[in-house]
Amino acid sequence: MLLSVITVSWENNPGLQKTWQSLSYLEKIQDLAFEWIVVDGGSQDGTVEFLESCEGKYNLRYISERDAGVYDAMNKGVEMASGQYVLFLNSGDCFHSEIATFIQQLAVQSTQEKEIYIGDAVLDFGNGVKKMRSAKPGWYIYHSLPASHQSIFYPRAGLVNYPYELQYKISADYALTARMFKCGYNFKHLNGVVSEFAMGGMSTVNNKQLCIDVKNAQLNIMKLPKVMVFLSYWLRVINTSRAKKLYNHSQSAVT
Q1: Domains assigned to the chain
Q2: What is the tens place of the pLDDT at every residue in 169-191?
Q3: CA distance 122 to 130
Q4: Contact status, residue 10 vs residue 40, Cβ threshold 8 Å
């Protein structure tokens, strides 16, 4: 099993079905063994009934129960996963039509045990506004994630050793990735667009908490100098505020 796709969902049956539909891009890739793990937070919106109707397609396994938040659910998904690599594609997120380009390269290079593979993503701001987010060089981890979380392929063994830390309410993904980097994992950018996802998630809405969480991870995990953390913090405040403003503008245009 090369890949485990983990989807966390809660009261978002339409989004979950959208994610499920995009798995057809993986199905078309020759000789690819993958599974779909769904961790639902106990939804009452027809999610369980939909998952039952899938009848295990895409090697589906799922649970539906209360959890302690999205990162707790992600940790549950890792415990269920059996793939060599894990990608988190939450309800509403989709694989891009070019995903085969990336996966074919991943299959060739998957002998590297301490590599985190990253790709590009498309951000959907709504109202027809989309933006490519290209992966950054690995050193970008000193400031932020070098790629969108939905375009990072983690070795499952690394996630088992370094689970998401729940004290980081918005940026446990950054904290986890930073810890893996400090413990010897490297980033490798492969060509291809991995995913497409809509803005408006918790990191967009709660951008101030995002900035605080990353700052704490930079101090406590990355052990960066305070001056560097200060500069990174204010650069992040500016960038996330700009993204939030663009998202809010696109939403007001829709209404």
Answers
A1: 3-201 (3.90.550.10)
A2: 889 999 999 999 999 999 999 99
A3: 7
A4: yes
